[in-house]
Amino acid sequence: MEWINAIFMRGGTSKGLFFDARDLPEDQSARDRIFTGALGSPDPFGRQLDGMGGGVSSLSKIVVVSASEREGVDVEYTFGQVAVDEAVVDYSGNCGNLSSAVVPFALQVGLLSAEADGPAAVTVHNTNTGATIVVRLTVRGGVAETIGDLVVPGVAGSGSPIELQYVEAGGSRAGAILPTGRPVDRLDLGDRTVEASLVDVSAPVVLVRAADVGLTGTESPDQIDADADLLALLDLIRRAGTVAMGLAATPADSPLAHPKIALVAPPATTTLLDGTAVEAADCDLVTRVLSMEVAHRAIPGTSALCAAAAAQIPGTVVQEAVGVGAASAGAARDEDTPLRLATPSGVVTCAADVRLEDGIPQAASASLFRTARPLMRGQVAVPH
Predict the structure, then answer these.
(1) Rg (CA), the chain
(2) C-alpha to C-alpha distance for 137 and 217, rounded to whole angstroms
């Protein structure tokens, strides 16, 4: 048994093990064995009982944080999505939720120091996507404040707001907001075609009309997960989108964690996981996102940013759905206002600054608010 320093952190609607790079071996394969062993993967029972993971993608993640030598950057981090049933760590994308816990972790372990209490802005670099993120938060007693009034849908209670502003967020992996140059693509699945908007803002996402796969968009995660035929179809669509975006040579080569696939629909009354409801008038878009082939209980932060950007690009399935909602409400929606996303856990609000340059959309920035806090610190046991 080996013991390694770590902090178990919640960021947004995800939890993960955070490591200081100084405490890890340089060899990547050795690191991966630590990460999978610590989280309890592989687990054929899907529960990760012999590790810190929670049996679903949002609870099976790691983050490695280090000081940065990049000019203008304070700290950098690498995100790893750990498969539950395989001894695999996928580094193909970023996690918008856990990104909110990077600076709080860095303050805890001394990678960053705060000169005074109060508002602080920290520039962070994500090594997976090359993204630059300006993190704004409140510091109290040298660490990140955790007490506050911000409620994140899917997280009980409230916390101190942490703003994540992704700078020049377009084309994180695929080189452009619209990797194919088109707002909608027809993906060939062999026996049928499906329309999708392929968008890359902070991380790539395949956005599909819920109606095109026989759904309303208001289905619960459990309903989606229980439909094996639907899951197989969505995985085919996701993999076809991966190839169209230039992220894989063949569908079989598609990374496990990215791109994600999101189902979108016009505003509708939605029953949440806690039994309450979101009225159609209180949202601009209904969405359900799958991560690692499992329906997310809320929404990945990067997927929310993609939706916010897509809502401002004419012709995308997102703008179409948002437009239907605005028409039903009898008023045009101001594109400068934040987008309200109805997720299974509640309404998530996010924003994007999308501008046309020579007719090509560019994302000057994209932002959302999260909360984060450390759950436990010490050492994690890793089996040999």
Answers:
(1) 20
(2) 34
CA distance 304 to 265: 14
The DSSP line for 262-285 is EEEE----EE-TTS-EE-GGG-SE
pLDDT in tens, 51-96: 999 998 889 999 999 999 999 999 999 999 999 999 999 998 899 8
Query: Is there a cis peptide before residue 361, judged by omega within 30 degrees of 0?
Result: no
Residue 368 identity:
L
Q: In 3-state terms, what secondary structure has residue 78?
A: strand
Q: How far apart are CA 97 and CA 80, in angstroms?
A: 13
Query: Measured between alpha carbons, how far is residue 85 from residues 34, 44, 95, 306, 380 in Å?
Result: 16, 5, 20, 28, 20
Instruction: Name the region of 315 (left: φ>0; alpha: ψ -120 to 50; beta: rest).
Output: left
d(CA 8, CA 377): 6
d(CA 331, CA 318) in angstroms, rounded, equals 17
Over 90: is that where the pLDDT of 214 sits? yes
pLDDT of residue 257: 80
What region does 168 belong to: left with phi over 0, alpha with psi -120 to 50, or beta? left
